[in-house]
Amino acid sequence: MQAWDIQFRSLSVxxxxxxxxxxxxxxxxAGKVSVILGGSGCGKxxxxxxxxxxxxxxxxxxxxxxxxxxxxxxxxxxxxxxxMGVLFQDGALLGALTLLENVxxxxxxxxxxxxxxLHEAAMRVLRMVGLEDFARFYPxxxxxxxxxxxxxxxxxxxxxxxxxxDEPTSGLDPVTAARMDELLRSMNEQYERxxxxxxxxxxxSLRAIADHVLVLREGRAVFSGSLPELExxxxxxxxxxxQREAGDQQMALHQPADPRVQDALEKWLHS
Amino acid sequence: MKTEHxxxxxxxxxxxxxxxINAVGDMALFMLTGLVQIFAxxxxxxxxxxxxxxxxxxxxxxxxxIGLFCGMVLGLQGYYTLVQFGSVGLLGSxxxxxxxxxxxxxxxxxMLTGRAGSSMAAEIGVMRITDQIDALDVMDxxxxxxxxxxxxxxxLISFPLLTAIFDVVGIIGGxxxxxxxxxxxxxxxxxxxxxxxxxxxxxxxxxKALVFxxxxxxxxxxxxxxxxxxxxxVGPEAVGNATTSAVVISCVLILAADYVxxxxxx
Lengths: 271, 266
Known about the structure:
heterodimer; A: 6-stranded mixed β-sheet; B: 266 residues; elongated
């Protein structure tokens, strides 16, 4: 049985010639929930794009199940991709299709099964994410949380070995976010051996779902290990991150306002 | 030490030229991929039908309207020009040949660029900036086969058909002004059409329509598909700019291609 772990070897990624992450060496273990953690703009989503194969690395390798993703020929690369399900930040549902059609899309495109069978398969995963009553709705008729859940349903319908989620709880209220965490955890339990990779900066989510954590900071991987190891780490940055402290980053919070702007604003507000 | 950004006038002039050559090559490859995917992608028939509805059926009314007024104006202008030479009987020839050889294919293509091409660029552009195209690729669905090939196929069918409709409605428009309003002999009008229009003219019009279909669809889909790589803007603004570029480039290419094709067909 193949183990679907994800390994980064001396990986440098970026856009054009500009490197966002340098020399990343880490393993996201198979069958576990790994959270890629880091501040805004640290390159979490960029790293995810490289795991999916949407961008090519500047240097190094991404190994999935021991195979170098970017050294595969086209048919093998496509076979590898079929093992992946991806939840994009806003769901990335096709606006012209209903929720049911969106969720069924991976099956309708690749399998020659009768329409009722495909629709029932889509309804099954929609029930799992609690959206069975919205099957005939279009994505723009749904809330952000619903779109994310629908995106998750589409990502899991083909029963992938690896599920990758880009900030699944960002922008959600605490209750919906907790529901999403519960869902992700249940996916990992329900689909045995499914490797889950979640990109997040949400600490509540991290504590709810993570088995393994990879922390990125200033273009480097500063921690890779289990959640208890992270919680007990003495690294000042990790402590600061986990305790949500403002840190020593200099931000000039108190700036005198320009009186000309203030006067103009005053007049405008009272006009 | 001089860098690549500091290499003088020649570089500054050369860089945009290279970018244009690059874009033309990219677009040609894009068109070829789109054409190849017509035969490679499954469910092309259903998707082409959907696009036929959007590009063809939904544009029908505006094409009929423009064709009618175009024919009426041609009838009016043609009459007052020909009457000075005492040859109003040639009005049927003038209207039909102008429409079938030139105005039919060109105006239809320009109208379809505004009506359907802009919507192709905007729709695909929005899909690009909202990760929908990436999502298709990740699901192992060829985004070119899913989005571009059906539009190329539908355009290749719609453009000649709508051109033919434009031509027929235009000739009726010429009939309305020439025969019903200005009193030209009805038989002379239609006899002149039948005697002057040859199959070469009709085929030429259809060849132009097919070439315009390929150009317009390629340019519009390409502009939408590459929205995220634009240098002048990002996000929703990039979609707007991509749509504008799609319409402007398509219109220029239609007129340039019309000149080239006419010089070969005459």
